[in-house]
Amino acid sequence: MTAIEESVRSSPSVSGNLLCHQFRQDPAIPFFLPNRHALRAAAAAAKKTPALHARVIALRKQNCSIYDIQRALEERGERLSAPAIWKILTAHGFAKLPRRADEERPVNVRFPDHRDR
Fold it and tell me: 77-91 burial, b if ≥16 CB within 10 A, otherwise e?
């Protein structure tokens, strides 16, 4: 291999040199693109109101599983995925429920009436 071929093969690309030059000239410019997935996830989390968190927690206190909570919320016209419910529960310190037999599962799930406080 000739010296010219070796220098072309081992040298950084022109676009790489240009990026380095631009970054050295102005280090404040964004070097990496923003993570769109994280931005979308943060926006979705902001849509979850404290009232929704309270409903999820109230249902878990009735010993409802994540899927029971999901069904109860859908009956009220609120859609929330099972992983989103799990994130809310773990954020509030709830652990997984132990595995239950079919007889032990709640038949119907209802929200507690807040008027009796």
Answer: eeebeeebbebbbee
